[in-house]
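anyone seen this seq b4? input:
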Amino acid sequence: MFRLILRRLLTSLPTFLGVSLVAFVLIRLVPGDPVELMIGERGASPEVMAEMRANLGLDQPLVIQYFSFLKNALTFDLGTSIISKKPVVDEFLARFPATIELSFVGLFFAILIGIPLGIIAAVKRNSSFDYLFMGGALVGYSMPIFWWGLILILIFSVQLGFTPVSGRISVFYDIPPVTGFMLIDSLLSEDSWPAFWSALKHLILPSIALGTIPLAAIARMTRSSLLEVLREDYIRTAKAKGLTAYQVIAVHALRNALIPIVTVIGVMVGTLLTGAILTETIFSWPGIGRWLVASVTSRDYPVIQGGVWLISAIIILVNLLVDLVYMWINPHMRNLS
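predicted toks r here
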């Protein structure tokens, strides 16, 4: 097992290098000078601007800037934000719990609804339930997050007034940041249950908007994987022994159908983190997605490079965790790794 983990980590090194290089190059292709944006309309002399570029290391050749970033990244020193003057790692850690909370609730929503829908569609193959659920999954997978988020706001916030439009909690509650997760911190506060309910209502629409595409993918994969397993000989044997439909599905079929489903769930983690950029912008959610969008606008090179690098590291670690879950679900795969 340790050898497997080590091999996965070593094969991930080219991915780290590729992601860091792409982030480094693309942000510098965007028109605009961070020094000019910092100075603003008041302007400054060429000497002052040259000094500012030297202090930021922007006067060095791009190759030297890139390898300097890689050297510092090995010690998790991702630089200092040009705008806020704070370490990039500190800013990332301060906002990351908000993104994790949103992504986790979105993934929970997707799994809670997607897997049962896929099971029903597989068991009721070619029925009206199958067509309805899979048609809805196709529509959900095709909807852009920014459009779907605005539709949810217009219906449930503006027209019906059921949920708040933006933010993590009502301004009436002053929640001290203990863990960074608003659902937990609200329960630890003095106004525990009212504050928790407010935080939960703020999570509903963003998590639905973020979790719709993973829900559709999980539902479709659950259906196709379960249908394939239900054609196996041992399933027919289980039915011939007189086992109930529940026993056949839950005990024999679903466990063997889980491996492709786990694969999709692992891939959806990356979709959730990247989709959070749009979702957090639409719902004014103070996470890393909104932080990165603001950094692109201000040409904050260290934030964009470091933020993208950290997100890629998290996605790679999640994929490693998915591989370990494979081994737990199907021990025979240990011999194939």
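The mean pLDDT is 83. The chain has 14 helices and no strands. kinda curious what u guys think
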